[in-house]
Hints:
The protein has about 400 residues and is α/β, with parallel strands linked by helices. Helix content is about 45%, strand content about 5%.
Amino acid sequence: MGKMPRIQKEMLACLQCGYCIDVCETHAQTPWESVTPRGKIYYLAQFDKKNPVDRILGRKVELSPEFVDAMYKCTGCGNCEAVCHANIELVEFWEKVRDWLVSEGVAPLPAHKKLKERIAEGRNPYGESPSDRDAWWPEDVPRAQIPDVIFFAGCTGSYRMQDIAQAGVEILNRAGVKTNCLGEDEWCCTSPALRTGQRDVTMTASREVVDKADSMGAKDMVMTCAGCYKTVKKDFGKFYSKTSQDVNHFTQYVEKLIKDKKLKITGELPAKVTYHDPCHLGRHAGVFDAPRNILKKIKGLEFVEMERNRESSRCCGAGGGYKSAFNDLAVNVAAERVRDAEEAGAEIIATACPFCVLNLKQGAKKIGSAVKVMDISQLLLQVTDPVE
């Protein structure tokens, strides 16, 4: 067994206070102490203390399948970090531990291994053809040879939730922004692999994306996917290089377009709307105000907050490889978030990530909720004028 990663400081800092337990969505689904952040840190601390006496006394000190399973019963949402009294950076901590488990050959889970294999083979985790990567591009939106913005659709937007990618590009076009995408050269950002401890595909992906994007002459890169936003903006530079473009989430870029009077909201939306903070965009990147400011600009829209919002927002349940390995549990978490919206009296949950939209829709369907789930880009299509 190889050396543990440098996590002793975090393990010693953990007070075993248990504040993390109440906010852990995966513990709520699997109520075992071993699944809690506190329980996993305790296990790691005991493993770190192993010595020859354990062998003499016949005590097995090993990375058990049960521990590996517990490590992946985690969405990586960061709610534990938000309430941690010892200020442990737990989002990064869990990724370090998963990376170590993979290096030890005891992880990842089969579903996660398959995701990485597909990314390595075909540049996306869905097993789709790279040549179909930009088949979603709207026919009525011109693709600029030298664009202002490179629109990074991401895998879910390209292959599963194309309506969100299309809405994003349509809105930019309505604001007069010259746009294009990387097409077949857009690789998966590799967030699904990174978050499950499989780091060996990110170097290639970041190099391919950054080099191609830098050759297009655009000033900005924009994405509607929160996972792509975090990975391209924060992680690419650790493996290869940051992009020369300013990386913006769609909501950040659109907020500026509205302020600059380039995107005019002309229609009304008479509905009670709440906003769900994607973990990668909210807690992980600190983008809380831009999406809310956009919603509050829409005439007729009554904005309401769910009880758990901003830094304390409940995870949708889809992140960190949790949905791919434990889909039923992930949908249960999403259903709880839909119930939060119902309690707030909302008719629509607006969010800013296709993966959140996908899982929240499934959660709403599971409990027979009438609450609609929409991406902010889709809402904006209803209240802005098409290009004539």
